[in-house]
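Structure ticket #2291
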Amino acid sequence: MTYRLRNIGIAVALALVAALLVSFYVSNYRRNVQQAEEMVTVYVAARDIEAGTPGKDVIADQLLTQKDVARRNIAPGALTSPEQIQNLVAADPIYAGEQVTTRRFTAVEETGIRSQITGSTRALQLPGDQHQLLAGTLKAGDRVDVVASVKYRVSDVSTDGTQSSSEGRERVASRVVLRDLLVLKGAPGPATSAKIANPGSDSLSALIAVTDSQAQKLFFVLRNGDWSLQLRPQDDPADSPESVETVESVLGDGLKPEQLRQLIFGFGEGSVDGDS
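Resolution: structure written out below.
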């Protein structure tokens, strides 16, 4: 009799445990279902977002909008705040209505040159020799000016205002034609063996950021003059007043009047025409 009562008690206890487990499972399942169906606010694209768009522009241009979705439909990496993409760049296109996630963005450094040119900015491959390009010195992020020397012709005009020569005179002038250009990629320093074999090699190049109008001026100089890049200081750069240098300004700087006459006309005060 005692053995039978003990078995009945064990069976009742096991039944109670099973009932508790079933009740816990059902309760937990119901809670999970309720949580999955709970509506949560997420960020979606208000309009199409192109790959390469900086996160700060996404925020500034109001390309994000909020939308309520069921918790079970939240995409992995969903934004909890727009500031999460402030310093990132869209790695892939994001289409209107699509959930915006941190997985669709990447660090600026990983997107390369394209992330650094927007609007009217262009990337221009600048070929030249190691001296023109400051090869081995320039690096990405540096700022440079372009100094150029260009030959041109001016018409000879007589004292009565008529042109005295159809060909004119050839002149040379130099000046800083562009300032404060961003270096996207510097030219590497050539190997020692290359310097010895061909010190004047122009097979090097640097990548420079210019506006579309600056590109026209730079291309003109490349095709019609001599030029060189010059590195700007990183701290507190300043520019001298704009000027142009010609043979008169270069050779005549600081000369006395009679010396200037000698420079321009070939003879000084008190000299016979044609004599120095």
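Closing remark: The first strand starts at residue 39 and ends at 45.
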